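Researcher: Next entry: Zinc finger HIT domain-containing protein 3 (Hydatigena taeniaeformis).
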Amino acid sequence: MENKLCSVCNCSLNCYKEHKSSCVQLHKNSPVKLPGPEVPLVPLDLGDDCSDYIPTRLLEKLRTSERLKELLSNRHLRDYLVDLDSSRHPAKAVEKAMKEPIFVEFADECLRLINEEDIR
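Model: Predicted structure:
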């Protein structure tokens, strides 16, 4: 079966049948290049208040933490994080999540890793 990359987003089967010859053939193990202009990365504008900014070197500590990986193996914790990430009312979602011991343990471990440097 051949795989193709369609330049028309979310087209229907009938639409695809009309333009399939213009779709790009994908080769196994080749990087996918999406059609359209490349958009340059723009630095994040933190505005005047960057009190919530966490440097990359500290975020790296979260990524490599074995304890966090262990906590994230819990399906319920992952569900809370997905709900929080997709919530239209994040403050309420955090308030609800903070009533769950597994989420509190996760949040405490994140804060411990981030603040570890301040203690030294």
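Model: Note for the record: The longest strand covers residues 3-5.
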